[in-house]
Amino acid sequence: MGRASTLSLHERGQIKVLSTTGYTVKRIADDVKRSRKAIMNFLRHQEEYGTKKSIGLPD
Question: Which parts of the chain are coiled coil (predicted)?
Answer without folding.
Answer: none
